[in-house]
Predict the 3D structure of the following.
Amino acid sequence: MRIIKINATNSTNEFARELYRGNTSFEPLCVVAIEQTKGRGQRGSGWISNAGENLTFSVLYPKIRVGLNHQFLMSATVSLAILNVLKKFNIPGLKVKWPNDIMSARYKIGGILIENILKNNEIAASVIGVGLNVNQTEFPDLPQAASLKLSTGVHFNLDELLKRITDEFEVKLTQIYDQAETAILEEYARSMFRRDQVSTFEFPNGTYLTGIIRGVTTSGRLNIEVEDSVFKTFDLKEIKLRY
């Protein structure tokens, strides 16, 4: 995969989207920034990262054959690809916190933001943004954040790690055409943070729910068992896992 390195940008996702404009045919490419000044996460949150210590990058990928109602398959595939790479570096307690935060034990080490570009009711291209805490060791006011170095005591080569991840993306996003949807979602479910454990969830109005994560639906809704054999599903904007 072609890799474009830049010193600084507001957002690698925005940079990648600009590269797409006007292009009808292109090969996958990756934009990686030493410093990202206005990185974005899920729910409109910011992504803070020390310059030169972590990976902040976006992959611009041509048309991925996933239906509009099954876009979560892409998110699940990307999350699992990152887990597969990190397992080879012996990162402990790897899990995915729904929908796509990367966890080591109970600490967040990475996040993913996928923005699909639609044309004629199809996905024309996808911008896959990744923020991964690698060598940063201090996270002021973020008690639930950690990094690969904090988890292992090892200092990582950013270029090597990026190459491993982008190579894995190319393999997994190609296989998504042939792999059964249920197989991807089952693997994702097995990797979910706090799956099969009693957990507390918060609604936007400040009320709480106690339940057990059992998996996700084909559209990526969180499946929670709220009583014996009573299940409810929730969208990203409807509920938040407290931990």
Summary: Residues 198-242 form a domain with the SH3 type barrels. fold (CATH 2.30.30). The radius of gyration is 18 Å.
